[in-house]
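Changelog note: in this version the structure field was regenerated for every chain. One regenerated record is shown below for reference.
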Amino acid sequence: MPLISLALRQSVCSVSALGLFVDGNVITALALDLNTLLVGSVLASLGAAMFAPTALGVGTSIADPERRGRALSTATSGLAGMLPG
């Protein structure tokens, strides 16, 4: 997934990843059979896998060099908030 994000701008990649994540979750929520449920779950997983490295890349690119560690920890804690638990 990080190779896909290299070919796209960060804003395009993050919006595409979130769209794929939302679409996958909608498909999963509306699934009537197992195959549709699995397809929706795979799409949501691909969206999440695209979004995580993009969010970390944006965090490091917009921060000053002396504040990059704090930006990475903020982005990581935001991503950890998405985890079920």
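Spot check on this record: The helical segments are 2-7, 10-29, 34-62, 68-80. Residues 15 and 57 are 14 Å apart (CA to CA).
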